[in-house]
Amino acid sequence: MSATGFTPNEMMTIAASRALKNDDVCFVGIGAPSAACNVARLTHAPDITLIYESGTIGTAPDVLPLSIGDGELCETAVTTVAVPEMFRYWLQGGRISIGFLGAAQLDKFGNINTTVIGDYFHPKTRLPGGGGAPEIATSSKEIYITMAQTKRGMVEKIDFFTSFGHGEGGDHRQRLGIDTSGPTLLITDLAIWKPDPVTKEFTVVSLHPGVTRQQVQESCGWVVKFAEALDETPAPSELELNTLRDLQARTRAAHEGTGKAKAA
Amino acid sequence: MVKFLPLKQAVAENLNNGDSVAFEGFTHLIPTAAAHEAIRQGFRDLTLIRMTPDLIYDQMIGMGMAKKIVFSYVGNPGVGLLRRARDAIENGFPRPIEVEEHSHAGMANAYEAGAAGLPCAVFRGYRGAGLAAVNPNIKSVTCPFTGEGLAAVPSIRPDVTFIHAQKADKKGNVLVEGIIGIQKEAVLAAKRAVVTVEEVVDNFDDLHPNLTVLPRWTIAAISVVPGGSHPSYAHGYYARDNAAYLEWDEIAADREKFQAWMQANVIEKSAGDFAGRVEHLRKAA
Q1: Does the record's keyword annotation contain Transferase (chain B) (predicted)?
Q2: Domain containing A181: what range?
Q3: Contacts by A62-65 with C-beta closer than 8 Å and gap 24+?
C-alpha cells in the first residue's frame, strides 16, 4: 500500500534505497547515502554488505551514525579493518560494487565537488574535501549519487573536481585509463536520472509523484534533458516510509540523548 | 625505552616548536587530552598532520599554533565544516596556514609507506581528480612491469605521533581495539610516539592473540589519562559524545566565543579533568 504525506527528502531516500540489491557491497557516504543504504538493509536487502571508510565491513547499525566511525558501526560489523587495508585491499582491490556519494556541487556528467567554492588557493568557501571520494569514484564498479536539487548545487561547471564522474562525457573515463562504470544513477528529491548511453549526460528518467518537468528545470543549473518515456517513481510504501521514519527517530534520540556537552 | 610519565611531562619532552606532528585517530580514540596539553604549553609553527583533522585541530589552528596542515578531510563528520580551520584558510585568521591536501587513500598509503621505511607510496589514485593539479606532492609513476600509470605521494614521517588507546600493560605494551584507524601506521612512521591510555593492567595474557598491540619499544612515553579521547570515544569504555560535536559547530562559529571556551575548558583545565567528562558516557558504552 502506498503512503501519503511524505516529504521530497523522504521520497529521495526511499527511491535511492530501492536501487540497492541484496548482493551489493556498498561503500557508504555519510548523510543521505547512509540513510538510503540502511533503509535498503531494513526492507528489501537484508543481506546487503555496508562498508564505511573507517574500516567497518558488513555493518548493521540500529541508528544512523553521526560520523563514519561511530562505535555502533564497529559493534555490529562482520569485521573491522585498519584504514590502509580498507583503501588498499577492499576498495582498490575491486571488491566494492556500489560507491554511494553525496555532493555539494554536481555537474551533468556526474563530476562532484566537495572541496572548495571559488578558487582553490583563495576559496570563497572551504568545504571539508574529498576524504575517500576521489578513489571511491574510480575504484567502485558503479557510483550512485544522491542530493537535494538546488541551482547552487547542480551547476553547469563545478569549481573543483573532487571526484571524477564522466569528465567531459563520452569515453572520457576510458581515455584516463579508468575501467569502472562511474556514475550510473542520480537520485534527487525530485527525480531519478541516468546517464545517456553515449554522451553520459544525466537524463531524467522518472519524476517523483506530483513533480513537474518545470520544477526539475527550475532547481537545476543546466538545461535538463528528459527521457522520451518518462516514468513516475512509485510513492513510498507504508513499510518503506515507516522504516525510514523509525530509523530517523531512533537516530535523533541517540544523538541528543547523551546530554549537553561540558567540554570537547 | 618507553617511560610512564604524567601527560604534561610526556608532551614537554617529545614535542617542540616547528615539529611535524600527527595527533591521529579515525573518529575513534582521538587523543584530545594530549592535544589540549600541547595547547596549554603553547607550541608554535607546527605542521599538523592528520587524515581527519576534526575538533582538536580546529582548536590548535584557532589558537594560532599551526603553520601548515596536511589532511584529507577537514570537516566535523556528520555536522559540517571546521569553522576555525576555515577562518584560517579563507581569511588568514589568526594567521595564514599552508595547506597540503590529499585523499584518504593517499594519506593512508603515505603513512603505511612511512611505517615501512619507504620514501614514497604508490597506488591507483587521484585519477581525474583536481587535487593532483594543486598539490605538487602528488606525482605519477609508471609501473615497470605493466606500464600502468599510478599515483605516487611522499611517505609521511612525523617528528612525533600522539594516539590514545585503551590499555597498556605494566611493561608498556599498548593495546588498541575497535576501529583501529591509522594509529598503528602513524606510530610506526613517526620518530617518536606518545600514547595516552585509559588504564594500565598487569598483562594481556587473557586477551585474544590477534588484537592490535604496539610493543613497548615502539613508544617513547605512555600517560594514563582516563577519558582522554572525549568527545571522541574509547570502545569498551565510553560512548562518543555526539552532542559535543554538534555543540562545537556553534562554539567555533564565533571568534570570541571560541576564545572564551578555550580559556575555560582547556587553558584553565588539566588532563585530570577528562575522567569527569566521560562519566555520563560510560553507561552508554
Answers
A1: yes
A2: 6-188+234-253
A3: A62/A250, A63/A247, A63/A250, A63/A251, A63/A253, A63/A254, A63/A255, A64/A34, A64/A35, A64/A38, A64/A247, A64/A248, A64/A251, A65/A30, A65/A34, A65/B78
Q: Which domain holds residue B95?
A: 1-99+155-276
List A residues 131-170 in contact with B (Cβ-Cβ < 8 A).
131-135, 137-139, 160-164, 167
Counting the structural domains of chain A, the total is 1
Note whether B105 contacts A134, CB cutoff 8 Å.
Answer: yes
Is residue B272 a part of any domain in this protein?
yes
With an 8 Å Cβ cutoff, is A100 touching chain B? no
Lowest pLDDT segment from A138-147, B159-168, B177-186, B208-217: B208-217
The CATH number of the domain where A243 resides is what? 3.40.1080.10
Give the relative orientation of helices A8-18 and A238-256 as an angle to the nearest 10 degrees: 110
The answer, for A54 touching chain B at a CB cutoff of 8 Å, is yes
Indicate the pTM of the whole model.
Answer: 0.95
Considering only CB atoms, which chain B residues are within 8 Å of A120? Answer: 130, 134
Among B28, B126, B230, whose Cβ lies nearest the Cβ of A69?
B28
Task: Specify the pLDDT at position B209.
Answer: 85
pLDDT confidence of residue A67: 86
Q: Is residue B122 part of a domain?
A: no
- For this complex, say whether ipTM is above 0.85: yes
Would you call A91 helix, strand, or coil by DSSP? helix
Give B201 to chain A, closest Cα distance, Å.
23
For the stretch B243-274, pLDDT in tens is 999 999 999 999 999 999 999 999 999 999 99
**At residue B175, does pLDDT exceed 60?**
yes
- Mean pLDDT computed over every residue of chain A: 94
